[in-house]
Amino acid sequence: MKRMKRLLAVAMAVGLLMSLPATANAASDETETTSRPTVEQVKDRAQAAIDRRLDTLDTLTLRVTDSPHMTAAHKAVLLGEYASAEFGLSALGDEIGDATTGDELRELVPLIAKNFRIYLVVIPKSREVNASDRVGNVVERLDEAADTVAEAIRRGDEAGLDMSVARRWLISARDDIDEARRTGVPVAGDVIGLQASDWEEPASSALQEGMRRLENAHVDIHKAKTSLEQAEKAIEDALGSTS
Amino acid sequence: MNTRRLAVLVTISVILAACTTAPRLAAPDIDQADPPEQELNQKIQVPQTEVQSDAGATGDSVASQADSQTDTPVFPDSEQPGPVATPVPPTNTSKTEATQSTTTTTTVVASTEDITDLLGDLDSLLSLLGDQVDGLDDDLADIDTSLTADEGDIEG
Fold first, then answer.
1. For labelling, which of A46, A62, B40, B117 has a CA lying 20 to 30 Å from the CA of A69?
2. In this complex, do B133 and A207 lie within 8 Å of one another by their Cβ atoms?
3. In terms of pLDDT, which residue wins out, A30 or A82?
4. What is the DSSP letter of A165?
């Protein structure tokens, strides 16, 4: 009887031990199924990535076309690049669609990012060109406002009013306007030529430098605007002192 | 005979002398009534009313001076005063002083009005600039976002 019990215990232990590898194999099979997608799944994901980029290019095209301050020359360059990228992405999508093996896909799919760099180069450079041209536009308006202040000061002088405070604010505004022009306006020319092949360098550094200069121009523009407002107030005060 | 001739000669010379001296004695009266000066004296008193009513009608030098005063624009064309604003002639002041004070007042009024107009233009420009600067704020925020992006699900 005792011998029978021992045999049963041994048989159960052996059975347990034999079942463990089977469980482990089943688990690894499930993992392999989820981590290694099929060729069709890869194609679907690639096409979704291409579509997302084509949508982004459509949005960029609309924004650049409608931009009221971007120069015509910059618009022509950017719109040409968008059209070229759309053509290239569509062609790449066709190649991926025709692929039949994992090896082909491993070669083609990374080109969606590498050959176009829509998110790392095209979008930031387009935005910097837009901002830089806006700085140019703002600087022109600031010049116009400064000229108006100068004319008001001249007439105030003729009328015998004390324009000294207004004149000091105008000088300060002119300095800030010049600085904004010097730092912000050239950015568009510096980054518009960047291509996908320029990633990561020199594109990354050029885009970071462009951002830094635009931020500086932004500060100078705020200062210039404040100085012109102060000049206006000083003229109003001078006028008020005569009445 | 000689005596008689002498008397006749003396008489004739006395008569001649009387005839030549009579006009000279009367001359000062004529000079005082010299027409040009009298006319000038009358016209000097005229301009006070003439300047206001019909400047430039006489054509002489005094009237020309009146012309120059009335031709000076006191207000811009668009703000010419109507008939109610009849200029009041200066009292107890010489013509020169009146002209100077009018000119000075004219310059100040015109300039301050022009300056006020310019400040209105400046307000419009600064308002437009405010919108542009706000747009630039958005541009920079977008750039900042895009510089920290990556190529997403395809990268690598």
1. B117
2. no
3. A82
4. H
